[in-house]
């Protein structure tokens, strides 16, 4: 499975918000720390805000912060917020021209794989991802 840049960049931005805690952080700061394109990040942060994953505060001390606790935001929610459908495997998601849908003998296989993948992605909260990143960093 290939993760889109939308998901990767959104996740990198969110991890900066996790590190910042209750302090708002600007899109500019996120982009500088993560070496990301500002316009793209602003658009992704807008998607995340619309999905209720981040809040934004205006003003000189404004910026972005998590709308919920990091343990309540999952990788699946992030992917859905930024419209990354790379993980969707079900024939129902985007049936190709020759797909038979539910009449296909393989439908149950692909649907089971899809449901498993959905469950796996939903099991990775920002807290869990942060712990994994810290563990990886301590191993270096």
Q: Strand sequence of the main sheet, in spatial order?
A: 1-2
> What is the percent of helical residues?
40-55%
The first-level CATH class is given as Mainly Alpha
CATH homology group:
Winged helix-like DNA-binding domain superfamily/Winged helix DNA-binding domain
What are the segments in which pLDDT stays under 50 over at least 5 consecutive residues?
none
Write the element-wise H/E pattern from the N-terminal end onward. HHHEEHHH
User: What is the name of the CATH architecture?
Assistant: Orthogonal Bundle
What is the count of β-strands?
A: 2
Query: How much strand content do the residues show?
Result: 5-15%
Oligomer: single chain
Query: Helix- and strand-based class?
Result: mainly alpha
Distance, first to last CA: 26 Å
Overall outline = elongated
Q: How many helices? A: 6
Rounded mean pLDDT is: 88
Rg calculated over all Cα atoms:
17 Å
Total individual domains: 1
Outline the biggest β-sheet.
Answer: 2 strands, antiparallel
CATH topology: Arc Repressor Mutant, subunit A
Report on this structure.
The protein is mainly α. It contains 6 helices and 2 strands. It has a single domain, classed as Arc Repressor Mutant, subunit A (Orthogonal Bundle). The chain has a two-stranded antiparallel sheet. Helix 1 (about 5-20) packs across helix 2 and helix 1 (about 5-20) packs across helix 3 (about 40-50). The mean pLDDT is about 90.
């Amino acid at each position: 499975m290939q993760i889109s840049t939308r998901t990767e960049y959104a996740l990198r931005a969110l991890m900066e918000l996790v590190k910042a805690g209750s302090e708002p952080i600007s899109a500019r700061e996120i982009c500088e720390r993560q070496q990301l394109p500002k316009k793209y990040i602003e658009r992704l942060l807008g998607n995340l805000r619309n999905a209720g994953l981040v809040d934004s505060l205006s003003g000189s001390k404004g910026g972005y912060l998590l709308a919920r606790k990091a343990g309540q935001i999952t990788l699946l929610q992030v992917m859905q917020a930024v419209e990354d459908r790379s993980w969707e495997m079900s024939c129902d998601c985007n049936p190709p021209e020759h797909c038979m849908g539910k009449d296909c003998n393989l439908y149950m296989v692909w649907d089971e794989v899809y449901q498993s993948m959905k469950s796996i992605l939903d099991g990775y909260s920002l807290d869990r991802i942060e712990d994994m990143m810290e563990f990886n960093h301590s191993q270096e």
